[in-house]
Amino acid sequence: MQLARSEQTSRLDGLTMSILGLGGLGAAVGFFMAMTAPPDVGQGFVARIFHVHVPVAWIAYLASFTALGYSIAYLVRRKSRHDRVAAATVEVGLIFMGLTLVTGMLWARPTWGVYWEWEPRLTTSAILFAIYVGYVVVRGAIEDPELRAKAAAGIAILGSINVPISYMSVRWWRSIHQTQSIDLSTGRIMVDTAILIPMLVNLAAFTLLFVGLVRLRSIIAARQAAREEV
Amino acid sequence: MKPKYVIALALVAGALLYLVLGGLGQNLVYFITPSEYFQQADRYQNRQVRLGGLVKEGSLDFSPKTLELRFVVSDGVKHVPVKSSGSTPPAMFGENRGVVVEGRFQGDTFVSQNLLVKHSETYTAPKDGWTPEQVRKLIEEAN
Lengths: 230, 143
Description:
The complex is a heterodimer.
Chain A: H1 2-5, H2 7-36, H3 50-77, H4 80-111, H5 120-141, H6 145-159, H7 162-172, H8 193-229
Helix pairs in contact in A: 2-8, 3-4, 3-6, 3-8, 4-5, 4-6, 4-8, 5-6, 5-7
Chain B: H1 3-27, H2 34-39, H3 41-44, E1 49-55, E2 61-63, E3 68-74, E4 79-84, E5 98-106, E6 109-118, H4 132-142
Parallel strand pairs in B: 4-6
Antiparallel strand pairs in B: 1-3, 1-5, 2-3, 3-4, 5-6
């Protein structure tokens, strides 16, 4: 643990831990706000899962775009740091995608009547989850660092094509999944302010947690790489 | 490459192929509307289809004893009588709500094996005095 005590790395950790702490605090506040927010007229209290499902899904999408950016950066500049951050982003994105699927299923059962339906939005989300899993598996399977980074970058770049398809799927094709309540492409918002605010608090908190976890994972990966080089 | 990674890669590749070719291919047209059914009635007769629309107002008839549910699915132009049995409908099922029924036509009636309720993308807080607790209290007092 000689490395952990050196000044530079512990300062880096300080910022990461602050981000994570703030994110955790924000999530606690968001949870309290969500549980005291008014219910929806049609769905009742079940609609509260909206406060978790939507921000978690957005971050799962965001992870794919972040990985896309770092993967292109790696292919252009060939700096191993970009490869490590891309990998960290996908790993954390995998957690958020898993949470999206689980919260979505828990929401679907009492409202639609089933946990799962093979309809466009759910299928494209399952594909995104499989791409994230595939990315992690491919990284584990390839031992040569350069080949591993190139292959992973390819998957991240190709996989991100699925994100706009998944996002727009509810409008391009008829499905059981409702269309966007907060439409990022037109700015139309179909949510009452009292229900919207806890969701935005959660979104901010989860974004901080996402950034913090990606930083933490990247630092661990950097230390592992440094140890392997010695 | 270690064998466990070969297995894992094969699993992921297989899952992706299954999802893209099987799951997505069949379900891009997830449901048809009553109007679309009548345009190509021959094609859909005796075939498993999903039919989507609104439950027509005044058409709902549920017998709690036999669990037989009858209603009319409408897209505003054409109307299809639907028969569904064997299970209690989801809590959100009701008139003027969106539904997707899965099953097949038997003559003019659509026999549904699976009933899904579609809900809207709007979230509206209840007006004062109409939160679920207050409504429950009103019902309890009325009884």
